[in-house]
Amino acid sequence: MIIVLRGRQDIFEIEQRFILNIFKRFEDYIIPVIAELPEE
Question: Rounded distance, CA 7 to CA 35, Å?
């Protein structure tokens, strides 16, 4: 997945942190779900 942010540098940094936080929360949620999947 590629996300391109354009704008003033300070806005870019805030948006980048916001998006990285969303990805971190998603990762924290999905890793235990994946760990629970049965192996084939």
Answer: 39
Rounded (5°) CA angle 20-18-26: 50
Work out the pLDDT band at 26, boundaries 50, 70, 90.
Answer: very high
Cβ–Cβ < 8 Å for 21, 31:
no
Global confidence as pTM: 0.53
DSSP states along 1-40: ------S-HHHHHHHHHHHHHHHHHHHHHHHHHHHHSPP-
